[in-house]
Amino acid sequence: MGGYGSGPGGGRPTVEGSLRLELPRLRRSGYLKPGHRVSGTWSWSRAGEPCGSVGVVCTTDPESVSTMVISFSHKGEQVTQNITLEAVPMRFGGWRWYARCPSSGRRCTTLVMPNGGHRFASVKAWRLPYASQNEDAFGRAHRRIAKANERLARMSRYARRPTRQRQRERLWEAEEVLDHGLTLAWQRLSGLEARLSAAGRIKKGDLADG
Q: What average pLDDT does the segment 95-123 reach?
């Protein structure tokens, strides 16, 4: 299985930019069936291109020991992680699953491995920020546009019309944010150019040409 050795470079790694094993998604995909052993390959893609995959084997027994074995390659070497799983009964039936972080020992519902990392651990153990913590309005708008476009591309042609419309509306809203931001930026640039030109420090049009 391929690990995570390539991806966007530069800047501090974020949760969104990492490979994530989210227990709620694993449960919905059938990996956490009580009393069963389920194995498979969990893959990730970014912008429609594969960016990593791991082997996952879940052996679950809410009344006893449950484990998740993650296997992948890192720099040509095979890596295997044994993760302890814990099940907590929910009020109206069923189980809520947690993983014990192999680094901190704390319970978590998501294990992540950032770009260049060599193991999965909790978000807190890796001390990763969420992208939204480091973004300005432009960055968030760009991310929403990319997410909406990706969802539209993944949709089946049989997807309901309201579902497609919601994604298009999110796309339009994000594009409006960008348009508004660019308009404000141009107005500020024009005002700065006028002040510098009046002071004789530049010629009119110099900033636009640059």
A: 94
